[in-house]
């Protein structure tokens, strides 16, 4: 298997979780603090930290410290294009009857 496909597959696995997709959508609006994200997503800070670490390790998001708070933001805005395409292809409502029109 090509190394570039292996790397792409790893990235898709990281993006393939509803919480992480929700995080990315939130972070396109603005920077969020860890406390704000945990409250908004209704998950523990520990759980949130695990998701943020995966995204940060892949270089998708970055953090900055302001006093005692840590804020997160998107590194590369092109990720939004990927999310929009994913929404268009997989997340829109399907017409009834099982057939889909392009």
TrEMBL record:
Membrane as a keyword of this entry, yes or no, is: no
**Organism whose genome encodes this protein:** Leptospirillum ferriphilum
Matching SMART domains: HTH_ARSR
- The protein here is known as Transcriptional regulator
Write down the Pfam families for this protein, in alphabetical order.
HTH_20
Q: Which UniProt keywords apply?
A: DNA-binding, Transcription, Transcription regulation
Q: Which PROSITE patterns match?
A: HTH_ARSR_2 (PS50987)
Location of the HTH arsR-type domain: 1-94
Record GO terms (molecular function): DNA binding; DNA-binding transcription factor activity
What high-level taxonomic lineage is stated for the organism? Bacteria, Pseudomonadati, Nitrospirota, Nitrospiria, Nitrospirales
């Amino acid at each position: 298997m090509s190394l570039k496909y292996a790397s792409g597959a790893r990235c898709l696995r990281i993006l393939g979780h509803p919480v992480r997709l929700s995080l990315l959508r939130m972070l396109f609006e603005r920077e969020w603090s860890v406390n704000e994200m945990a409250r908004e997503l209704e998950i523990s800070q520990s759980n949130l930290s695990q998701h943020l670490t995966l995204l940060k390790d892949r270089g998708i998001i970055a953090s900055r410290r302001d006093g005692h708070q840590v804020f997160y933001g998107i590194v590369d805005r092109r990720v939004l294009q990927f999310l929009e395409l994913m929404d268009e292809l997989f997340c829109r409502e399907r017409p009834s009857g099982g057939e889909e029109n392009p």
